[in-house]
């Protein structure tokens, strides 16, 4: 899960820097395409992170039964 978050943070930082650059000048076609690729990659990575987190949380013994239900 930490590896996925590290990738998310690196891509988010790169996209942020491209947005900063866009505030001062027009982005080249390559830079615009890079922003689009980063955004698509981030969508996939966030979904992966959510799945990893859910798997971690639901593998804990106290959460294996539905919330609010008593164990038989």
The overall pLDDT, averaged over residues, is: 90
Sketch the major β-sheet: none
Q: Please give the alpha-carbon distance between the first and last residues.
A: 33 Å
Number of helices, counting only DSSP H or I runs of 4 residues or more: 2
Based on DSSP secondary structure assignment, what is the total number of beta strands? Answer: 0
> What overall geometry do the principal axes of the alpha carbons give?
elongated
Q: State the oligomer.
A: single chain
Question: Which H/E pattern describes the elements?
Answer: HH
- Write down the Rg: 19 Å
Query: Poorly predicted ranges (pLDDT <50, ≥5 residues)?
Result: none
> Roughly what percent helix?
over 70%
Sheet-strand content, in percent, reads under 5%
Specify the structural class: mainly alpha
Describe it:
With 72 residues, this protein is an all-alpha fold. The protein has a domain at 26-61. It has 2 helices and no strands. The chain has helices at 2-22, 29-58. Helix 1 runs antiparallel to helix 2. The two termini are 33 Å apart. The relative contact order is 0.13. The mean pLDDT is 90.
Topology:
Layout: H1 2-22, H2 29-58
Helix pairs in contact: 1-2
In short:
The protein is mainly alpha-helical and 72 residues long.
Supply the key terms.
72 residues; mainly alpha; 2 helices; 71% helix
